[in-house]
């Protein structure tokens, strides 16, 4: 799961009851909590650039995805919402293996 604008302190403050219930039922990623200290969001702080950085291990300036909406004149004459783009030419990074 990914939550835009979600602070870790929300869990500590007890204001996300559904997530707490999921954790009690066994849907947790405790190892990830340890790794959070090493995980920093990429800039710009947008959903798709950060998801793609996680998947490829490349920062936005290296993977080419710098916003949720992109314009690439060489293969489209309009703005594209990357979340709905199916054209693989938008995605230059290779997944982390």
From TrEMBL:
GO CC aspect terms = I band; sarcoplasmic reticulum; striated muscle dense body
Determine the domain of life of the protein's source.
Eukaryota
Q: Which InterPro entries match?
A: Alkaline_phosphatase_core_sf, Phosphodiest/P_Trfase
Kindly name one Pfam family recorded for this protein: Phosphodiest
Recorded hits in PANTHER family, A to Z, give: ECTONUCLEOTIDE PYROPHOSPHATASE/PHOSPHODIESTERASE (PTHR10151), ECTONUCLEOTIDE PYROPHOSPHATASE_PHOSPHODIESTERASE C27A7.3 (PTHR10151:SF114)
What is the name attached to this protein's record? Acyloxyacyl hydrolase
Q: Which organism is it from?
A: Gongylonema pulchrum
């Amino acid at each position: 799961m990914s939550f835009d604008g979600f602070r870790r302190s929300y869990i500590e403050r007890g204001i996300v009851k559904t997530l707490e219930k999921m954790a009690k039922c066994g849907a947790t990623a405790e190892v990830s909590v340890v790794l959070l200290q090493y995980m920093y969001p990429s800039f710009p702080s947008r959903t798709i650039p950060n998801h793609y950085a996680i998947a490829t291990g490349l920062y936005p300036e290296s993977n080419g995805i710098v916003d949720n909406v992109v314009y690439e004149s060489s293969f489209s004459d309009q703005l594209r919402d990357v979340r709905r783009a199916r054209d693989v030419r938008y995605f230059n990074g290779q997944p982390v293996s």
